[in-house]
């Protein structure tokens, strides 16, 4: 199977986690695009969706799925999203598509985070994928200096502006052995909006597609 076929298999498996009659939290990216396309077939069984990016909102709307403002809803039983890397404790690096801030907000509201990935995303230690950090534009140089002090090598994502009007620094060379601590530390740097570590609020379920099908893994409570 190709990587895209594996992404699609993981995405379609996530349809089993949708709560009938609810609003569904929807992430961003090529794996989630398969999920949105699959969700279109269940349109009559959900109220609609909350989206984490302009791109996902457009795709949802094109399928006739109503997109709600997060501020207008009371609860979100399930959030479905991909990841760039996920470790064995279900901490993730996200933001390869630059949607990390809205993704983290929607994930924070959700009761259950279902992560959909092909098997190449599973790692022992996070950090080979450069860690995206969303930054207020005027703070890029300051934040870069601070990130270097933490041992990383930040590179500005050229020509890219987030849905929130900010910039992305991709931080190379980190070996992230304590994702919860690093997530908090980077968020303390003035000018940082969000970083792409999803560790304090990691995934609850991992649907991991490989050669032998889709593994359905639940986070163990002790994480
Ligand atoms: O900003 C993008 C998101 O965090 C994506 O969920 C992540 O980059 C994975 O994307 P893909 O499914 O395209 O590999």
TrEMBL record:
| EC number(s) stated in the UniProt entry for this protein | 5.3.1.6
Tagged with keyword Isomerase: yes
GO molecular-function term, one example from the UniProt record: ribose-5-phosphate isomerase activity
Instruction: Supply the name of the protein.
Output: Ribose-5-phosphate isomerase A
State its role: Catalyzes the reversible conversion of ribose-5-phosphate to ribulose 5-phosphate.
Q: Which organism is it from?
A: Thauera aromatica K172
Entries under Pfam families matching the protein: Rib_5-P_isom_A (PF06026)
Q: Which Gene3D superfamilies match?
A: 3.30.70.260, 3.40.50.1360
Subunit structure, interactors included: Homodimer.
């Amino acid at each position: 199977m190709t990587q895209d076929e594996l992404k699609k298999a993981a995405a379609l498996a996530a349809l089993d986690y949708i709560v009938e009659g609810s609003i569904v939290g929807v992430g961003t990216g090529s794996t989630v695009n398969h999920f949105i396309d699959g969700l279109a077939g269940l349109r009559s069984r959900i109220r609609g969706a909350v989206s984490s990016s302009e791109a996902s909102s457009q795709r949802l709307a094109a399928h006739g799925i109503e997109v709600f403002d997060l501020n207008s809803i009371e609860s979100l039983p399930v959030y479905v999203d991909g990841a760039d890397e996920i470790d064995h404790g279900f901490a993730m690096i996200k933001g390869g598509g630059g949607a990390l801030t809205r993704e983290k907000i929607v994930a924070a509201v959700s009761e259950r985070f279902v992560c959909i990935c092909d098997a190449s995303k599973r790692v022992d230690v996070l950090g080979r994928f450069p860690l995206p950090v969303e930054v207020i534009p005027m703070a890029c140089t300051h934040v870069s200096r601070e990130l270097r002090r933490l041992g990383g090598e930040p590179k500005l994502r050229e020509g890219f502006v987030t849905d929130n009007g900010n910039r992305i620094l991709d931080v190379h060379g980190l070996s992230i052995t304590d994702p919860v601590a690093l997530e908090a530390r980077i968020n303390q740097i003035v000018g940082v909006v969000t970083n792409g570590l999803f560790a304090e609020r990691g995934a609850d379920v991992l649907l991991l597609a490989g050669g032998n099908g889709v593994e359905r893994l639940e986070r163990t409570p002790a994480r």
